[in-house]
Design a protein that fits this description.
Length: 227
């Protein structure tokens, strides 16, 4: 009489394959909204001149004025840093001929402040002191991972809820522990665009800047088995 070994029995191998082919795949999403507690402003000075030395000198003088003005607002020096310094050669084209027009010097500073209500004051102070270009303003929070972990926890609960709904509809029993989770992070921090020409006029009161709420979103894909 022939006996199959338990480890190689077709009946024993077929069950796990059938079990793991019973998959429910869902996407879970979690969101956390919070008031921004930090503003990151990128602005600076762009100068142009037929002379490179002149463009550099005028730029350096204006940036120094901007930095000194920001320091007068009690912004720590370490929270003011250069993020871009660029020299570009500019040309005119006449009848297909390239003619040197001059030079453009761009010096951008990143200013980080923890009092978001002063964002408009910082922008106006910089512009009134010589800044003529505002690249971006974005809002964030320190310890972003704390908020993300909260969103991630909600995303896992959301995924399980969806999987349970599908299982109940199918009339099957869900195994709550997922066999696979793929994690993706998305933080929504839309910058507020500004036109430099609108900021050079000066204002009697600080430019009103409303940061709104920061939304931290966690997205994951989870696979569950059922029987």
């Amino acid at each position: 009489m022939y006996y199959s070994h338990p480890l190689t029995s077709p009946a024993m191998t077929a069950a796990p394959l059938s079990h793991y082919n019973r998959l429910i795949t869902v996407t879970g999403e979690g969101k956390v909204s919070t008031a921004p507690k930090r503003a990151i402003i990128v602005l600076g000075v762009i100068t142009e001149s037929p002379s490179l030395a002149t463009a550099q000198s005028e730029n350096a003088s204006a940036v120094t004025n901007v930095i000194n003005a920001l320091l007068s607002l009690n912004i720590p020096r370490e929270q003011i840093q250069t993020v871009t310094y660029r020299i570009e050669i500019q040309y005119n084209y006449e009848d297909g001929t390239q003619i040197l027009r001059g030079y453009r010097v761009t010096h951008l500073l990143q200013i980080t402040i923890d009092r978001v209500e002063q964002t408009g004051l910082v922008v106006d102070t910089a512009v009134n002191s010589g800044a003529n270009f505002v690249s971006s303003i974005r809002f964030t929070v320190p310890n972003l991972e704390i908020y993300y972990n909260q969103a991630l926890s909600t995303a896992i609960q959301n995924a399980e809820s969806k999987a349970n709904t599908i299982a109940r509809t199918l009339g099957v029993t869900l195994i709550r522990t997922p066999v696979k989770i793929t994690e993706e992070t998305q933080v929504i921090e839309p910058p507020i665009p500004f036109q430099a020409s609108l900021l050079t006029e000066g204002a009697a009161v600080p430019t009103p800047i409303q940061p709104g709420e920061l939304e931290i979103r966690a997205v994951l894909r989870a696979q569950y088995t059922y029987f």
